[in-house]
Amino acid sequence: MMEQNFFTVIVAHMAIVWIVLAIIFATIEGFTFGLVTIWFTVGALVAAIVALIGGNLPAQLIAFFAISIILLVFTRPILVKHLKVGKEKNNIEIIEGKRGLVTEMIAPFKSGLVKVNGIVWTAVGETPDAAAEVGQEVEVIRVEGVKLIVSPVPAKPTT
User: Fold this and answer.
1) 123: Cβ–Cβ under 8 A, 6 or more apart, which residues?
2) Quick one: which of 7, 74, 107, 131 is 20 to 30 A from 67 by CA?
3) Digit-coded pLDDT (tens) for 68-84
4) Could you tell me the pTM of the whole model?
């Protein structure tokens, strides 16, 4: 009998339960910044509104899950892209695709030096037989460890 009364009291005050859940979800989001629990915060607030206007527990649960999942699926990717959540380029990723100047010749099967963004890096050609002369411009294809993989940029024809 006591259990039934407890359940009846909880169901009668579901708006408060949903608001408490919204606060918990918002707090978790505040610590993680993962843009996941924020949608459950909104879903819990919508469920609280449904409870306040007299909706039964199944209606509240449907509102909570429907709103949460719809927002998570459709709006999270847009916000993650615009806010760049969880993805910060580091110095290595920034120089990929940049151009540099050869300061020590890159010979076939031998590394040389390339200056990119004011920093001198050890570099090798993209193919084992690639070569680049001192003063030649190269493009950074990728970074492997502390070594740049570069490709010579063809010289512009002079007219």
Assistant:
1) 100, 102, 106, 111, 112, 113, 114, 138, 147, 148, 149, 150
2) 7
3) 999 988 887 887 777 76
4) 0.51
| Predicted confidence band of residue 42 (pLDDT cuts 50, 70, 90) | very high
Q: DSSP for 34-64, please give it.
A: -SSHHHHHHHHHHHHHHHHTT--HHHHHHHH
Residue found under tokens 């009998």: 1
Domain range summary for the chain, segments of one domain joined by +:
2-83, 91-152
Domain 91-152, CATH among 2.40.50.140, 3.40.50.1000, 3.40.50.2300, 3.90.1070.10: 2.40.50.140
Of 94, 93, 116, residue with least CA distance to 150: 116
